[in-house]
Amino acid sequence: MKRLNRYLIIWWKLTLGTTQIAFQSRFGAVLFLLGKLLRYVFFLLFLVLLVNRAKVIAGYTFWEIVLFYATFNFLDTLPQFFFRNVYRFRQQILNGYFDNLLLKPLPSLFHPLFGGSDMLDLFVLILSAGFIIFAGWHSDHVTVLRVLLYILLLMNGFIISLGFHIFVLGTGILSTAVDNTVMLYRDLTQMGRLPIEVYQEPLRGLITFVIPVGIMMTYPGRALLGLLSWQGVVIALVFGVGLLFISLRFWSYALRHYTSASN
Amino acid sequence: MVIQINHLTKFYQVHQKEPGFAGSMKSLFHRTYYDAKAVNDISFEIDEGELVGFIGPNGAGKTTTLKCLTGLLYPTSGQVSVLGYTPFQRKHEYLKQISLVMGQKNQLWWDLPAIDSFLLNKEIYEIPADQYNKTVAELSELLDVEDILQVQVRKLSLGQRMKCELIAALIHTPKILFLDEPTIGLDVVMQQKLRDFVKAYNENFNATVILTSHYMKDVEELCRRVIIIDHGKILYDGKLANIVKKYAKNKSITVIFEKPVTREKLKQLGEVASFDPLKAVVIVPRDKSNYVASKLLEQFPVEDLNIEEPNIEEIIRDVFANQASSV
Amino acid sequence: MKLYLQVAKNTWDEMMSYRFNFAMWRLRNVLQLLTVYYLWLAVTPQNGHIFGYSRSLILTYVLGASLIGSIVFSTRTQEMGDNINNGELSQFLIRPFGYLGYWFARDIGDKLFNVSFALAELTIIYFILRPSIFLQPNIFAVLLTIGAICIAVVMNFFLGSLLGMIAFWSPEVWAPRFIFFTLVSFFAGGLFPLDILPVPMQRVFAFLPFGYLQYFPLQIYLGKLSSNGLIQGFCIALVWCLLLYFLVTWVWRKGLRVYSSEGN
Fold this sequence. Notes:
heterotrimer; A: mainly alpha; 12 helices; 0% strand; C: mainly alpha; two-stranded antiparallel sheet; 11 helices; 2% strand; globular
């Protein structure tokens, strides 16, 4: 407990520092925020246009599609808030800053994952949480149990995201290819903007079970709408925890092969 | 004995690429690697409070050794034990007792004042408030940076930044201080200040200090014991003073003449390293130095004469040259 | 000329030296394509139309947009901004060749690289997914499409250069480019053909440069434009090119003045 408290204090100090620094280049920060908001709004408009004409996409009605998109939104923004630092990792490896991090009495993943949160991202996060509630409100067949399942699977989605990011960091140590790997993760998860029923086999199977985008993004919505069996829930949780476990092993492996920047 | 290294070996795999277009297409599918032997079976022990210098040319394995000692690198084989811990396991209790300062690499937040980085380290190292305040006050007074702690690090001069980096690295008063090329890029005054500081830290806290450097002055002033490394192997481990006795075969005599002299006449007494009608440097075997000196005074119009030990740098260069030629 | 060829070749070599990075980025391109492809496959009825596009037409559109995108959007102009910011521009200014010409040559190297792999990937995807493709029989239309693509390449280069030259006045080089990417990803036609937008919006976008980067060439290829539409489109596109050219040279001159007055 005391240890957790210590980590929280350190995380808070790091976040304050990062936010202060981001504030120093406010213009850029605001533009990025604007860009992110525009991206979400434009795609929503596109969805509206589309469903208006097509009436049904892969068996889902308008509000159900919006719910899936809102879920994606949240699970896209949440990791971006917590794991911002992953996008800086390559730089930190190249300029040797990671050496400094490894020397500190902290878990080796602490700073690379959590060390760069910017409080400005909270703004988008809160908006997207509100968006979920808005979409859920318009959905049918919602019960308390299903809401709880939804939240559980959201958390599971976050765990999957955590596993992915750890994997990305490990790749960064082995080959400094972090940028492309993390953008690959983003592209994969973008496929979750729509329910994965849109995709045909074998692609659908691939992005549900091999690279669990479907489990991450679509399962929560399905649970809320009462379309997910209990076996599905169990599979989802097994995947989440399993992926996290494997990614942690990968990280240990990567550390053993760390070669450190030369002077 | 705080540091013990046994048969430490660290190899890297380096990729060989053939030049040109064909080479790059080939490397897409099949890569050849060779083993770069950064550290190749080295062993030594260091006691508490020692101040040891690692000397060697670039790529000798000094930095790699330091990084193995601090847990950054995973040894290919061999045992490393520091303060009873295995560094690579990165136990928090171990990391709280050591510090590694790398010449040009910064740990301070660039866009914030140095004090913010200190406060962060206070939390990370779990330093009690009163100890923290005391340490910061002492160190900043010693290094004369009290006024600039609230200034953005990016706005500080290189010297000021270096001092703040040092404080950040010592805020937890580590028992072992590793310094990797600490004086690189600093002006002469700063270099001296740093040396004085390191010496004071070693004496006041009985801290063990290991440093690597290119500058012989660092090593001469600070270290009684040196370890010479080249191509990943230890060439020498012992007192600095003994290197001179062991490897320096000659002494150099610098002479200044009242009237111009000829090179030929000088050559009879010994090897002429540099010549100028009014000033010359002659190299002679150690045991003959006094004899030659007296001959010089006899035979030449000498205004001033000086017998010198060769530069430690030259001695070491010779050691490497011998090593290279015997390989 | 030889110099520019060498520059293009060097860019190619650079890109090849990062094997893993390169595989990742190609994979990303394929994924982005598949996402859009399946989306349209899901909403377009098997034998019907949506927004006036049959399955065959819309899938041709999607694949075509991907190919055109790889030609038009691959660029190195983002490095221009870094160049200016870290002062490396000075080294270039003393060399005996045109700065913009240099960057265009780099772009070409980048594009050649991109296109070769895009073509390979599209071929593989075609043989796996077997969509029914619309092949334009009219050679003249194909030639016009190629012409429109060339205009798009030049346009994107100018736009990218303008974004890069922001660096003369501000260290923020990525944020404006990010906004630009966001706008392009929706309104150049890569995600959807612009004619699904409400007509008033379409009229506005006809006068903006975005649509001419991907949508316009595709419309020519798919035969969706009347001769009036063709003429109007080409005129507007060319006007934009000219405008952007003058803008770029003017901003370049102004920027250089600022750059040298800062003691670079």
